[in-house]
From TrEMBL:
It is a single-pass membrane protein. This is Protein translocase subunit SecE. Pfam families: SecE (PF00584). Its main location: membrane. PANTHER family: PROTEIN TRANSLOCASE SUBUNIT SECE (PTHR33910:SF1). The gene is secE. The lineage of its organism: Bacteria, Pseudomonadati, Pseudomonadota, Alphaproteobacteria, Rhodobacterales. It is found in: Cell membrane; Membrane. Essential subunit of the Sec protein translocation channel SecYEG. Clamps together the 2 halves of SecY. May contact the channel plug during translocation. It comes from the Bacteria. GO terms for biological process: intracellular protein transmembrane transport; protein secretion; protein targeting; protein transport by the Sec complex. GO terms for molecular function: protein transmembrane transporter activity. It comes from Roseivivax sediminis.
Length: 65
């Protein structure tokens, strides 16, 4: 692979960063809210699954003991 000098590297990095399309403040806010909502829903789902498994195991162990 060809080596580039530091000046060329910095120029290439600046050219690549100029191509980036940054999200707007509204897009960032909406995405953040959606992440929190999905995290909350996932936590509730796994809490309910945990309760169901715990109840099932306690019932199963209650039968055999």
């Amino acid at each position: 692979m060809a080596r580039t000098n530091p000046l060329q590297f910095v120029q290439q990095v600046r050219a690549e960063v100029a191509k980036v399309v940054w999200p707007t403040r509204r897009e960032v806010l909406l995405t953040t809210v959606m992440v929190f909502i999905m995290a909350t829903l996932t936590a509730i789902f796994f809490a309910l699954v945990d309760l169901a498994i715990r109840g099932g195991l306690q019932g199963l162990l209650g039968i055999f003991s």
